[in-house]
Design goal:
It holds the Pfam family Flavin_Reduct. This is Flavin reductase family protein. Its EC number is 1.5.1.-. Keywords: Oxidoreductase. The protein is mainly beta. It has one domain: Pnp Oxidase, Chain A (Roll). The strands form four sheets. A seven-stranded antiparallel beta sheet has the order 3-2-6-9-10-5-4, covered by helices on one side. Strands 1-13-14 form a three-stranded antiparallel beta sheet, with no helix packed on it. Strand 7 and strand 8 form a beta hairpin. The longest helix has 9 residues. The relative contact order is 0.20.
Length: about 200
């Protein structure tokens, strides 16, 4: 099968959502200028640079009570900071609950029954007891073609790691089982890992 996105795919569900998978989930916490905490999961998320460490996430729709975007992007534009909370399988239901389209004055931490902890380097809340959290300062927001498509880039200025995830000096993802986004309503849990030696590395 071949199709041009501009012509439509003719299938019951959009296959593009299932092709680029699995995708890590950026559970983005932010705070509005008037002090309201916000928490929302974004599956268009990834790390993009090592030195300095940088991440990105993309927001692809808008809310009626925001101007052309969602609460996360609006808050980050106001304050210049955000935190990425890493989602483990055990927190899948809370993550899903935080995706509800709530009014901007509502706190998703409260809605999802999550405990908050204040970040160390930025004025923002983070999710307590997540495997890792990345405190970020905004570097750039890029507007993409299409309605409300924005990519947010941030420099990581503080990193929290849960002690039980550190094994032999390495961050071991199998200790917490990362949750990944698949297509449609599907998710996946990372329970197995393997290593490959690059051709230009010594064996």
């Amino acid at each position: 099968m071949f199709y041009r996105p501009e012509d439509g795919h003719g299938l019951p569900h959009n296959p593009f959502n299932a092709i680029v998978t699995p995708r890590p989930i950026g559970w983005i916490s932010s705070r509005s200028a008037d002090g309201v905490n916000n928490l929302a999961p974004y599956s268009f998320f990834n790390a993009v640079a090592y030195e300095p460490p940088q991440v990105m996430f993309a927001s692809t729709s808008a809310k009626p009570d925001q101007t052309g975007t969602k609460d996360s992007v609006a808050n980050i534009l106001e304050t210049g900071v955000f935190c990425v909370n890493i989602v483990e399988y055990a927190m899948r239901d809370a993550m899903n609950a935080s995706s509800a389209a709530l009014p901007r004055e509502d706190d998703e931490f409260v809605h999802a029954g999550l405990e908050t902890v204040e970040c160390s380097t930025i004025p923002c809340a983070r999710v307590a007891n997540v495997p890792a959290a990345l405190e970020c300062k905004l570097t750039k927001v890029i507007t993409l073609p299409g309605d409300a498509n924005r990519v947010v880039f941030g420099e990581v200025v503080g990193i929290h790691m849960r002690d039980d995830c550190l094994v032999g000096g390495a961050f071991d993802v199998t200790r917490y089982v990362p949750l990944a986004r698949m297509g449609y309503r599907d998710y996946s849990a990372v329970r197995e890992v393997f290593s490959l030696t690059r051709p230009d590395e010594a064996s």
